Amino acid sequence: MKQVSQSEERHLTVKAVAAYCMVSGITVRRWIKDGKLSAMKLPSRHYRITTDGFRDFLERYNMPIKEEFFKSE
To answer: How far apart are the first and last CA of the chain?
Structure first.
């Protein structure tokens, strides 16, 4: 597996995760608050989720993984 530096790593917004999972942003924020989905909080109070963290979340909760979504741009 290729090591990715933090500057190369893709980060997802709450909106992108919500669209992928077909849920509301409120649900994604609840997952973060409940510790189910790891995210970092920006000074602007918005969250960012790493693609690796999101993939781990999907695997842990047996949700479908769309490989094309995770391919590098």
So the answer is: 17
